[in-house]
From TrEMBL:
It comes from Kerstersia gyiorum. InterPro entries: NAD(P)-bd_dom_sf, ODC_Mu_crystall, ODC_N. GO terms for cellular component: cytoplasm. This is Ornithine cyclodeaminase. It comes from the Bacteria.
């Protein structure tokens, strides 16, 4: 961690374009790992996601205090008519000074994908050659980019009714991996790694079709009534990795609506405990593993701290 200071006596304002440039050239894995391990050791406190709704407008906030990294912050975003606007306010835990306001539209896709990759490196087949992708919005696209660098992918099976030839060709160009449009059944049957990054309220594939050894990252839903994955997928999973089990189990219908809560909780592993177990692969060919993410504040504040430090060095 660099010495805390504020450039020119004023907090920085870091726009999405700069965030994109910094994170595209950097690696979030070390700072995310440190943040989760610090939390596991009792050195981080988090504010869960808090929603306030009125007349079709939703305001959401979540925060984290991380003295071990030297930072605290809050992420705030609005949601109206399907549009989202994200901002992070970053503070120094030593002085209390405000350090920066960070536009977090781009940041969100980077940190979400980076955490999925951390989990996939632990539990997916290290020789995985087929990625199945449901949803080609910014979060899905970023998952394809990061997973194509982490695994020896030879093809990406894309299931998104709104993704035409232009998007398919762009993804193929940016990943260097052959991309084919496919239906949900083909994706479920043929993929080693599956990512669901949609806003679907109902499951997007049939969990009975999954091959043993499949790794599923369900990252699109943080709504109590929405289910991107079905109960069969949850039941078949031997391990369910969650960022913050106490929050995630209550935040997404994927898990909240699962009938056998005792059986589910018995196979839950926190992302922090997974990281503490080491970096060696724990892949088992006969075991399905599911990573379910809703996003937690320490990810945002840790990522914002890296962005801030990089921006300061360049100032």
């Amino acid at each position: 961690m660099m010495e805390m200071k504020v450039a020119d006596g004023m907090p920085l304002y870091i726009a999405d374009a700069e965030v994109e440039r910094i994170l595209r050239a950097g690696d979030l894995a070390p700072v995310l790992t440190r943040a989760f391990l610090s939390w596991r050791e009792g050195q981080v406190n988090m504010q869960p996601r808090f929603r306030t709704d009125q007349d079709g407008f939703r305001l959401v906030s979540m925060g984290a205090v991380m003295p071990a990294l030297g930072y605290a912050g809050v992420k705030v975003y609005s949601h109206v008519a399907g549009r989202l606007c994200f901002r992070i306010m970053l503070f120094c835990t030593r002085t209390g000074a405000m350090l920066a306001t960070v536009e977090a539209n781009a940041l969100t896709k980077f940190r979400t994908a980076a955490c999925s990759v951390l989990s996939a490196r632990r539990y997916a087949d290290p020789q995985a050659d087929t990625l199945g992708l449901f949803g080609l919005g910014p979060v899905g696209y970023e998952h394809a980019l990061q997973l194509s660098r982490a695994f020896p992918l030879r093809r990406i099976l894309l299931c998104d009714p709104r993704a035409g030839e232009t998007l398919r060709a762009a993804l193929e160009r940016d990943t260097g991996v052959r991309v084919a449009l496919a239906d949900a059944d083909a994706v479920a049957r043929q993929s080693n790694i599956i990512v669901t990054a949609t806003r679907s309220l109902v499951p997007v594939f049939d969990g009975a079709l999954l091959r043993p050894g499949t790794f599923v990252a369900a990252v699109g839903s943080c709504l109590k009534h929405a289910r991107e994955v079905d109960a069969v997928t949850v039941a078949r999973a031997g391990v369910v990795v969650l960022e913050w089990p106490e929050q995630t189990l209550q935040d997404t219908g994927d898990l909240l609506l699962f009938d056998d809560q005792a059986a589910l909780r018995a196979k839950v592993e926190s992302l922090a405990d997974m990281l503490a177990a080491g970096q060696a692969s724990a892949y088992e060919p006969g075991r399905i593993v599911m990573y379910n993410a809703v996003g937690v504040a320490l990810e945002d504040i840790a990522a914002a701290s890296m962005i801030y430090e990089t921006a300061l060095e360049a100032a």
